[in-house]
Q: What sequence folds into this?
């Protein structure tokens, strides 16, 4: 197998270009990175880089407002932009037939962004709403305070999104001046990876970007953080479900020779992190996980070391369970840091960390050989040296979030405290030509009834295997939370090994094994390097078929589930979602309750109940197992058959999921959560199962309404035209039973009624006016052009295969989909909107702070 071709070039205007051929799927991803972030912002202009990022989606003479998202989506592509402390980046991922569009967008907005004053003012409201959404998460305040305390001189201590006072005062001219200063080719790097010829692509890049004039060198960041001579402490008191700890030590930049050792040390402490967006971390055998999470003291614990231009931070964070003692947790963190200062990391533990890093890079499907070589050369002595250099009390800032108030606010897992990037045309006569996708998925069935699915990609270095069982929360009956606890307990001890022993073996392989419990099904998933598939299949079978549900582990998992429930109860987004579902699905319906269950049931659940649930529902007859990646299908199936041969035949009891009628009239319920800045609204109606003949038509209707372009018609009106929300969109869920259509938005409390009215108005318009042919065409290509993007990883292919089998769509579904979608017309979309999206029978849920003074809150309606 030939190695992918990679070239790096520098154009005469200073633009750095990196091109990499990768012919796994007919897709190209185009990224432009500008070296500008919150690091480049003077006092009084915090958040200006992030605001400029927003404005580059707001139009040029070539691409008017809204057209960039629309044009990429009509090819089935995805795009976004994000700002961090060191950089701002933009990307488009498209079928390879549309790569020209990505080059046109990025070369055009590198020099022609308009910064229309009216658009600036609309975006001011949107960005303020985005900040308010961040403020709804209590740890956000903790992170801001810890950063501000850790940095007294360097702009790394400023929030990427900016201080509210600055966001209220920044002007259009200041934004435009920032853009002209930093958005120059000599301050940018263009990266393209995918299905193309590098020499031809370089010529295309030179044609699009080569004539853009270079700009002057951007001003240097002169601030240098002075030495910290004493520990700093901050305490934030906010409504929150549990205490949260965030500790930070000053750390070196990416260019430091100490950086590779700190990456490895981060892995030793809390496992290897995903290299790119998405994916899952490893490290359940890591030191912080075993000391804090396995012990039951915390629901999550993590460390983080970011690669930065200037010296930044190494952090450790933890989200405590409700009964944990904060002093004990902090003492344990100090003990673990003392261990890495005083004791060499054992050779087997170091090898395990390196293996995890190699596996994460392999899953990323990209070559970073130089960095991997540096990581693999790190020695125990180097780890000791860097730990003693940086993990000293005098260089530490300690922050605590202490719950305050009678009602608790939302706290995400501690991993989210690691500072990450801040996310966020006239087509002409040329028709959209998306590549046809052909995916061969083989199918077989074992004697015990287990259905096997397989796909081989000889170019992949990894393998993914997923077991799906119809044992989700819909099976709970009158015992909500049983399916969830059963699934979570699978990895906490088997007949052959304990929870710790299982995690040590997985981490030694650089593999990940997880369990996901949904409403319809449970997925037991594993990813590994392809050579390790034999062992991973054995471990997956052991976890799924032979768990022992030990009592001590049950108590720890119970505490973690209760913590997760408290977080959900006090998250405006989660509470609006649950309230809407509870209004639409009546009590007793399998979809009425939370997947997590209720606090009462979680507290009283016994081991015997979990054992019985596992025995009853973890049966092979309606189970599916998919494998994809770099292992030939026949070889993978032989491994699976050997590992699952002992699974005795048997059928789980039938599950009838009854249909649901929408409410006879519009109903509404409001939930008040203290300590919040923003409200979440959700409007919805029950719809159809996944296999229903109307599903695809309803899906196109939803794409027009709340997905296409900048979140469809809802985003265009609620976000773009009126500036009421940072996000406004809609979604269509469908499974074995009646699905759910839901529109949602996050708004300032004063804008709740106006946003609801506008969403309903757009639904009425969809019912009363046929969509125009341009929207219909774009919705079709949004679906069809996006197919290759969903097949970029072995895990994604395995998940798709499971969906096709589990929902009985047929293995030829992808081949049939273009004709099916092409046969749906505007009249059919209008018809399904009238049939299923009745605004007079909607349920409306609002979760957020108390209504502003002078506004009456609508009374709850059951």
A:
């Amino acid at each position: 197998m030939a190695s992918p071709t990679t070239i790096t070039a520098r154009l005469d205007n200073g633009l750095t270009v990196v091109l990499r051929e990768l012919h796994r799927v007919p897709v190209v991803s185009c990224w432009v990175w500008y070296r500008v972030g919150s690091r480049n912002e003077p006092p009084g202009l915090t958040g200006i880089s992030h605001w400029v990022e927003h404005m580059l989606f707001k139009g040029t003479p070539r691409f008017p407002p809204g057209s960039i998202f629309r044009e990429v989506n009509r090819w089935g592509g995805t795009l976004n932009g994000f700002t961090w402390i060191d950089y701002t980046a933009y990307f488009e991922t498209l079928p390879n037939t549309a790569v020209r569009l990505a080059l046109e967008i990025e070369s055009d907005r590198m020099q022609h962004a308009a910064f229309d004053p009216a658009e600036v003012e609309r975006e001011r409201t949107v960005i303020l709403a985005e900040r308010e959404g961040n403020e709804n998460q209590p740890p956000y305040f903790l992170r801001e305070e810890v950063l501000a305390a850790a940095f007294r001189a360097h702009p790394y201590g400023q929030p990427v999104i900016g201080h509210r006072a600055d966001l209220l005062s920044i002007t259009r001219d200041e934004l435009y001046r920032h853009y002209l200063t930093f958005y120059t080719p000599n301050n940018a790097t263009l990266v393209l990876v995918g299905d193309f010829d590098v020499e031809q692509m370089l010529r295309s890049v030179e044609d699009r970007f080569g004539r853009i004039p270079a700009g002057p060198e951007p001003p240097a960041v002169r601030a240098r953080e002075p030495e910290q001579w004493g520990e700093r402490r901050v305490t934030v008191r906010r409504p929150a479900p549990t205490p949260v700890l965030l500790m930070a030590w000053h750390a070196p930049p990416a260019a430091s020779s100490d950086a590779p050792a700190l990456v490895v040390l981060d892995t030793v402490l809390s496992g290897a992190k995903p290299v790119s967006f998405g994916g899952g971390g490893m490290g359940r055998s890591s030191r912080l996980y075993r000391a804090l999470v396995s012990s039951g003291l915390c629901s999550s614990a993590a460390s983080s070391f970011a690669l930065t231009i200037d010296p930044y931070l190494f952090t450790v964070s933890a989200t405590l369970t409700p009964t944990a003692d904060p002093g004990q947790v902090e003492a344990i963190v100090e003990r673990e840091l003392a261990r890495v200062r005083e004791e060499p990391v054992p050779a087997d533990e170091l090898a395990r960390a390196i293996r995890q890093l190699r596996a994460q890079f392999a899953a990323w499907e990209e070559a970073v050989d130089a960095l991997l070589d540096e990581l693999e050369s790190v020695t125990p002595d180097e780890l000791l040296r860097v730990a003693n250099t940086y993990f000293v009390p005098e260089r530490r800032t300690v922050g605590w979030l202490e719950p305050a108030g009678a009602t608790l606010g939302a706290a995400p897992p501690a991993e989210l405290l690691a500072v990450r990037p801040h996310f966020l045309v006239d087509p002409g006569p040329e028709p959209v030509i998306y590549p046809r996708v052909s995916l061969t998925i083989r199918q077989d069935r074992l004697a015990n009834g287990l259905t096997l699915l397989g796909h081989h990609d000889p170019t992949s270095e990894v393998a993914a295997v997923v077991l799906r069982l119809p044992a989700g929360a819909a099976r709970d009956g009158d015992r909500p939370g049983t399916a969830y606890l059963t699934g979570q307990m699978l990895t906490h001890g088997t007949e052959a090994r304990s929870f710790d022993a299982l995690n040590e073996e997985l981490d030694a392989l650089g593999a990940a094994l997880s369990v996901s419990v949904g409403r319809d099904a449970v997925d037991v998933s594993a990813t590994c390097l392809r050579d390790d598939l034999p062992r991973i299949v054995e471990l997956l079978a052991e976890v799924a078929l032979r768990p022992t549900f030990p009592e001590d582990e049950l108590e720890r998992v119970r505490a973690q589930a209760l913590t997760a429930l408290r977080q959900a109860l006090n998250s405006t987004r989660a509470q609006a979602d649950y309230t809407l579902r509870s209004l639409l699905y009546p009590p007793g319906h399998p979809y009425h309750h939370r997947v997590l269950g209720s606090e009462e049931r979680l507290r009283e659940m016994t081991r015997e109940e979990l054992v019985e649930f596992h025995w009853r529902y973890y049966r092979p007859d309606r189970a599916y197992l998919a494998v994809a990646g770099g292992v030939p299908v026949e070889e993978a199936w032989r491994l699976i058959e050997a590992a699952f041969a002992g699974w005795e035949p048997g059928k789980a009891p039938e599950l009838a999921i009854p249909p649901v009628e929408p409410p006879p009239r519009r109903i509404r319920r409001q939930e008040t959560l203290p300590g919040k800045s923003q409200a979440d609204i959700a409007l919805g109606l029950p719809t159809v199962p996944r296999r229903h003949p109307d599903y695809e038509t309803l899906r196109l209707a939803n794409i027009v309404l709340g997905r296409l372009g900048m979140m469809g018609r809802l985003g265009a009106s609620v976000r773009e035209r009126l500036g009421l929300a940072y996000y406004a969109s809609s979604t269509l869920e469908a499974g074995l039973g009646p699905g759910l259509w839901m529109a949602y938005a996050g708004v300032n409390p004063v804008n709740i009624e106006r946003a609801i009215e506008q969403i309903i108005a757009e639904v009425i318009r969809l019912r009363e006016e046929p969509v125009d042919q341009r929207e219909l065409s774009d919705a079709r290509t949004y679906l069809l052009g996006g197919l290759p993007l969903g097949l970029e990883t072995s895990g994604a292919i395995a998940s798709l295969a499971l969906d096709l089998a589990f929902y009985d769509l047929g293995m030829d579904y992808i081949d049939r989909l273009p004709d099916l979608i092409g046969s749906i017309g505007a009249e059919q979309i209008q018809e399904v909107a009238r049939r299923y999206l009745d605004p007079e029978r909607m349920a409306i849920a609002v979760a957020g702070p108390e209504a502003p003074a002078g506004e009456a809150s609508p009374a709850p309606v059951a």
Notes: The chain has four domains: 5-210, 232-403, 442-644, 667-848. Residues 406-431, 854-862 have pLDDT under 50 and may be disordered.
